[in-house]
């Protein structure tokens, strides 16, 4: 776990900063201040959490994600797969933690009466993370922790590389479309469009890799 901490200092620093911002917010804001934490498909807030607990959702989520990924990396079967997993984790974990930090800042700004926080801002953050993750995928080494891990990708290096190159293109195009579209449409449309686009972007590489697997070139 010490090696995991050393290898992912930037991502873990983001978690620490997210926690620090939450702590400052808890000291500055009145107890039981309601903060939005969920929106329905119409773009309306349908769930609130109160301070101080709401301010530690993001750092808690960051610790949970890091713990699960770190545990998965520890049980890698060989030193080679551990090294490959280490490089993959570095590429993916940092933008995820950056998104949580981004959401924490927006949450605090909402609690303090600023207008930065809103559904569209969150959706833009998701689009940016999709863009960053997509650009990380193209050189992602074959590993047993991160990436598009399907039976036919983890057992075929050519399939893995082609699938992740394709995923990079899909994620990048999807993210750019979302960045352009989200500010122009109502929230009710923006949330539906974002969910549909992310779902399509997630499924497309799996279908593509399956088609490669079923052709002689993929074997």
Automatic annotation (TrEMBL):
Recorded superkingdom: Bacteria
As given in the record, the signal peptide range reads none
Q: Which InterPro entries match?
A: DUF1648 (IPR012867), SdpI (IPR026272), SdpI/YhfL (IPR025962)
Keyword Cell wall biogenesis/degradation belongs to the record: no
Keywords associated with the record: Membrane, Transmembrane, Transmembrane helix
Q: Which Pfam families match?
A: DUF1648, SdpI
**Alphabetical list of PANTHER family matching this protein:** IMMUNITY PROTEIN SDPI (PTHR37810)
What's the name of the protein?
DUF1648 domain-containing protein
* Organism of provenance: Kordiimonas sediminis
Organism lineage: Bacteria, Pseudomonadati, Pseudomonadota, Alphaproteobacteria, Kordiimonadales
């Amino acid at each position: 776990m010490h090696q995991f901490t050393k290898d992912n200092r930037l991502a873990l620093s983001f978690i620490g900063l997210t926690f620090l911002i939450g702590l400052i917010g808890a000291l500055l804001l009145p107890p039981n201040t309601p903060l939005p934490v969920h929106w329905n498909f119409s773009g309306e807030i349908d769930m609130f959490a109160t301070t101080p607990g709401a301010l530690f959702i993001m750092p808690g989520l960051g610790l949970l994600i890091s713990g699960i990924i770190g545990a998965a990396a520890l049980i890698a079967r060989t030193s080679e797969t551990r090294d490959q997993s280490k490089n993959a984790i570095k590429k993916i974990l940092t933008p995820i933690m950056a998104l949580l930090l981004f959401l924490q800042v927006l949450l605090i700004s909402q609690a303090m009466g600023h207008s930065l926080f809103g559904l569209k801002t969150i959706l833009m953050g998701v689009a940016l993370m999709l863009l960053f993750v997509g650009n990380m995928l193209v050189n992602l080494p074959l590993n047993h922790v991160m990436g598009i891990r399907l039976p036919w990708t983890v057992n075929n290096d050519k399939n893995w590389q082609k699938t992740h190159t394709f995923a990079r293109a899909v994620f990048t195009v999807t993210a750019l479309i979302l960045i352009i579209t989200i500010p122009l449409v109502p929230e009710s449309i923006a949330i539906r469009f974002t969910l549909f686009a992310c779902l399509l972007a997630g499924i497309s590489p799996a279908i593509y890799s399956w088609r490669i697997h079923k052709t002689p070139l993929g074997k």
